[in-house]
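User: Show me a protein chain along with its predicted structure.
Assistant: Here is one chain, sequence first, then structure tokens.
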Amino acid sequence: MSSFLTAREVCQRLREAALGVLTLELRESCDNSGRVLVDIEGWRLLLDFEGGRLHHCECAQNADGQEGALHTWQRYGTDPVSLLSTWELAQIEKLLRESAQR
């Protein structure tokens, strides 16, 4: 087990939320910054979601306390959001928009 979360591990959590296997819950919306804090069954992700579009994942923490962050993932050339398929990205954006309207 690595000491930090990889982009692929975080992407898998987003994929499972897109498929409806896991529940994505909006915890906090920072309107001025475009960032939203979400919980995907014990994993907390800070997402850059502005103008109805998901741009990237700033950071993530799993239930065991392992963390990952954009600056670390970019060192390896990617972030979790860029690994999503077009359909998965659209599903996550839809879930975020619906959650923000509640």
